[in-house]
Amino acid sequence: MLTEILSDIRYRLRALFRRQAVERELDQELRFHLEREAEKYLKQGASPDEAMRRARVAFGGIDSAKEASRDGRGLALLETATADLRYALRSLRRNPGFTLGVVVTLALGIGANAAMFGIVDRLLFRSPPYLREPDRVHRVYLVWVERGREVIETTNQYTRYLDLRRWTTGFSDLAGYSNRKLAVGVGQDARELEVSTVSATFFDFFDAKPVIGRFFTTSEDTVPVGALVTVLGYGFWQSRYGGRSDALGQQLQIGTVSYTIVGVAPRDFDGIPDDASPVAFIPITAYAGTFMHGTRVPNYYTGYNWGWMSILARRKAGVSLAAATADLSAAHERSWNAELGLNPAQTPAAIAHPRAIAGPVQFERGPRQSNVARVAGWVSGVALIVLLIACANVANLLLARAVRRRREIALRLALGVSRRRLAIQLLTESLLLAGAGGAAGLLLAQWGGSILRALFLPGYASGSSLADGRTLAFAFLATLLAGGVTGLAPILQARRADLAEDLKAGARESGYRRSRIRTALLLFQASLSVVLLVGAGLFVRSLQKVRGLRLGYDIDPVVYIYPNTRGAQLSDDAHAALRRRLLDAARTIPGVERATLGMTVPFWDTWTTDLFVPGIDSVRRLGEFTLQTGTPEYFQTVGTRILRGRGITLEDRRDAPRVMVVSEAMAATLWPGREPLGQCIRVDADTMPCTTVVGIAENIRQNSLTDDPGLQYYMPVDQFHPENAVIFARVKGHADDFKESVRRQLQPLMPGDGYLTVSSMSDILRPQVRSWELGTTMFLAFGGLALVLAAIGLYSVIAYDVAQRTRELGIRIALGARIDDVVRLVVSDGMRFALVGVAVGGAITLAAGRQIGPLLYSVSPGDPLVFGVVAGVLLSAAALASALPAYRAARVDPNVTLRTE
Prior knowledge:
The protein is α+β, with helices and mostly antiparallel strands. Helix content is 51%, strand content 15%. The chain contains 27 helices and 23 strands. The chain is globular and about 135 Å long.
């Protein structure tokens, strides 16, 4: 039985790949049987011709026997498809210009979608590599109400993590983790790199085994200070240690202390990265226990004042998401009350309504999607629109080709080809074109994907679209969609073919007829192009307004310098002295105009402390007031303007009366309608001496570009925690040009293995404007691509119409029509298409305005300036696309036209 099956399979494969040889064998076999049948009649006395005639009659026909044999192979459908494919290849080879145009058009549409799919999939849908049972793994989001607004927090205290471990029952595993930029290495080789601080239970969430060595254990991840061991990332192990096994046991300086290497993570294992692939994994308790100047934070595992880590949780099998969320919420409320016992100023649970969400692991998904994720979603929609425009363009070209082939199609139908068979051939042709476009699109996605990854996923290793199975599967589906959509129009056209009229037409067209389908496709392209161009214009306007926004400080000329002492045992006075030396040295660097000490950096970190104001029961309930410290040159260095009173002066020493400068918003909040200068504020405790308000500064954007109350106050650095000061320097020119020179000249002043981080303020601000920059870049790129495709489509339709109307235009000219009248007639056709496209596309954009509005900044989705510019651009493109066909129309010779009649 098995032998027969294998023999049948071998025969079918041979019939598929060696068809000619099998056909020869079939002819020989049929001839043999026919001759044997004829011999029977010869023996009965029939003549040779009569014997052969009778044999053929008895045999039933050679051709039918051959067809029956071919059907028995079970390959008829495949042979038909192969024949259709060969026919399509021959047909397309005869029109290389048409074929190239269609392939390039589809490649642009499919490539753009494949590249964007890889980004959106990584941001929103793809689980981290090696993650086990991803459908039951969640990131924990804690929620509460603060001053009437719901707060969703992703960073939590280690004590909160311990509370949730103790007081939840619906989860089999919980783990804590935090990705930090830490100095790795020593001396000039030290660099700020991504390091993942994780609990030992973190590795239990993954089906990953170390390449060499081991992961650290729960006994090495204990409070107050975990074991100083580390697991290297695979890429870092390869680049720094050459993939050698003797890396185990070596020491690696990370942050403030030295860690012993105990293992290497497998290739592509990144844990749960936020910005980049980590170079090392260290116990979370080791990091927390050695965080501050080489000494542990004493209460990080008993207090609730340091929120810095994320929590990962796996639901138990059989526990629903709703039950797990309720379990988390109950544990969070219990933990909230525990915090209230330590801090009576904490808002009661009855007012804060604490709860928890077992949300998606992918941070960008939310529960509140980030602006970057929302822009990525919109850009994906934009890429799909580009594909639809490309498909409409190709469908128009195929329709024009089908019209030129009307006589050929009619002749084939007259000869007996079924309409179903003809439709299959036309579909095969469109799928072949789409397949070529898809292959070329993947090459474009490989190139363009690296650009998109640099925009949307900075810090990640660049992957290959050609090696990603999910991207390849998406590109295959997009190719099938493009082939089906583009093939539909010519199939519908062929189904309505009039044989008598098309056969009578001969080689000459019977007259000019504009296809309604082609007109609809052209208007479809123009309308969608308007949607994309309006989106691009809205993001451009938003970015202009964001960049022109006054933040309350200068960006381009300011450098931020953070000294990382990396565990050097220095007293508070020694830390203050080090920063004074760095400050004095910074002022002598060529190109540095001013330098000052500070304590916090906008959009990076904030500092708050308790404030007490006479006549106000609770300052905290009025808002979050953030503190900045500075030297006398602070306001001139960062560019914050003093509106009234004075700033910080040399007289504001440690032993002088305490003073502060408050922002305009803070003054209006604490003393509405009253004079703030001279008012008393007690800092830290209501038993502290008065700190007198001596100046009013302009409001600054501290944590948000779009919604920041500007509640900021400033104190002399000598009067508040001088050991925590950082350095700001103002340079002549752009700060990016001075970062490395500043670092080189100040680095020798750092003690021991100390390390300086030097950043420009534009580096810090860049993530805040990233969503608008992404939207602007991608909408402009795809909008421009859509405009080009729409212009090409319009040109092809107008050019084809002119070719169809040659006889009509010639007669018009012969009857006295002027050349400019003919040109105006052709161009007006293109302009009508563009005007209708502007109207329809504008209506679509206005209808979608509510969805895109939250992504814009101080720009209305119906901005008349944007709509006016887009209308002008599209009309100009239409005029240019119509110009060449109009020129050809003007050159029609009426004599030649009339002679053909």
